[in-house]
Design goal:
Layout lengths: L2 H29 L3 H9 L5 H4 L2 H8 L14 E3 L6 E3 L18
Antiparallel strand pairs: 1-2
Organism: Tunturiibacter gelidiferens
InterPro entries: Thioredoxin-like_sf
Protein name: Alkyl hydroperoxide reductase subunit C/ Thiol specific antioxidant domain-containing protein
Length: 106
Amino acid sequence: MKKNTKRLLGGLFAGLFCLWLGFVGYINWAMRQPPEVFGHVMARMPMPAYFLFPFETMWTDARKGTLKVGDPAPDFTVETLDTRTPMRLASLWEDKPAVLIFGSFT
């Protein structure tokens, strides 16, 4: 190959790598935003992008949180399903320990 062709291909690959790196940074930023912002970004994501970027690894890192095994659960308030009255998590363990299980049953 000629020297100019190699230089052109090197520049092209460097430019594509910079675009890829910028896009990964943008997705990483979006994953750390509230669900509304992240959903807005992902709704416009073209399907081939899912094969070009490490979404699962980035998602696991972005949403891992700071709690460790054995840490006390943070207190929060939710509405009960039956009466829609607010209930604090701390009120559950006033008398006895409480176990929280989060998961999807669909």
